[in-house]
């Protein structure tokens, strides 16, 4: 049984050691299976951290403060077909308590960084053989996804800062502004078009 693509997404377990996650053995089995049964795999958020750790030994690091909001990203490799049509600077939502560091990724010659955020670190990376793609933010988020997460924190009395660059004037009483939709669409279209079906 072979598949064209697989998406391995995130989970709110990013502060735990990978081996401490209940389903880590099952996830490892799936990731290993994908090596011979899936043409290309897209890993999102914690899923990206997990795959980099399992396949390439790249560690993750807990953050002192949650990376939460919509952040500016610069193209490190604008020639990559994955970001064809992207502006030089684009926006991407992030919501995570850990990171995979730029220097740890580029230390491995089988990996490359495609885009980077000065505030949130690496936003997109890939394997040089184009089998694995790693997106550390959430270009798939809807307009209200961060709002719903923020509202859940507030309702539970959890101390959380307003998501950055999301509400006009950082005022949560206003409607969020979507600043990432075009690139969010492009990343999936480009992945399928240039790395899977061509």
- The secondary-structure class comes to alpha/beta
Strand order in space, largest sheet = 1-2-7-6-5-3-4
Distance between the termini: 21 Å
The run of helices and strands is EHEHEEHEEEHH
* Percentage of residues in helical conformation: 25-40%
Form type: globular
Sheet with the most strands? 7 strands, mixed
> Can you tell me the residue ranges where pLDDT is under 50 for at least 5 consecutive residues?
none
Mean pLDDT: 95
Secondary structure tally: strands? 7
**Discrete helix count:** 5
List descriptors.
single chain; 198 residues; alpha/beta; seven-stranded mixed sheet; 7 strands; 29% helix
Please outline the helices and strands.
Elements: E1 3-8, H1 24-37, E2 38-44, H2 46-56, E3 61-75, E4 89-99, H3 102-106, E5 111-117, E6 121-127, E7 132-135, H4 145-155, H5 181-197
Write up what this structure looks like.
- With 198 residues, the protein is of the alpha/beta class.
- The chain is built from five helices and seven strands.
- β5 and β6 (121-127) form a beta hairpin.
- The longest helix is centred in the C-terminal third of the chain and has 17 residues, at 181-197.
- The chain is globular.
- The model has no long low-confidence stretch (mean pLDDT 95).
């Amino acid at each position: 049984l072979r598949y064209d693509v697989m998406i391995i997404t995130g989970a709110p377990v990013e502060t735990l050691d990978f081996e401490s996650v209940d389903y880590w053995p099952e996830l490892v089995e799936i990731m290993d299976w994908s090596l011979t049964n899936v043409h290309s795999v897209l890993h999102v958020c914690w899923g990206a951290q997990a795959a980099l750790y399992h396949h390439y030994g790249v560690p993750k690091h807990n953050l002192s403060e949650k990376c939460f909001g919509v952040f500016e990203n610069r193209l490190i490799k604008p020639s990559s077909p994955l970001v064809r049509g992207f502006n030089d600077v684009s926006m991407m939502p992030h919501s995570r308590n850990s990171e995979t560091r730029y220097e740890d990724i580029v230390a491995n010659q089988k990996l490359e960084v495609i885009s980077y955020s000065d505030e949130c670190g690496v936003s997109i990376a890939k394997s040089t053989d184009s089998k694995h793609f790693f997106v550390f933010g959430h270009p798939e988020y809807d307009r209200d996804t961060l709002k719903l997460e923020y509202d859940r924190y507030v309702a539970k009395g959890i101390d959380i800062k307003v998501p950055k660059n999301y509400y006009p004037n950082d005022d949560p009483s206003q409607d969020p502004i979507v600043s990432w939709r075009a690139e969010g669409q492009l990343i999936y279209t480009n992945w399928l078009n240039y790395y899977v079906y061509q």
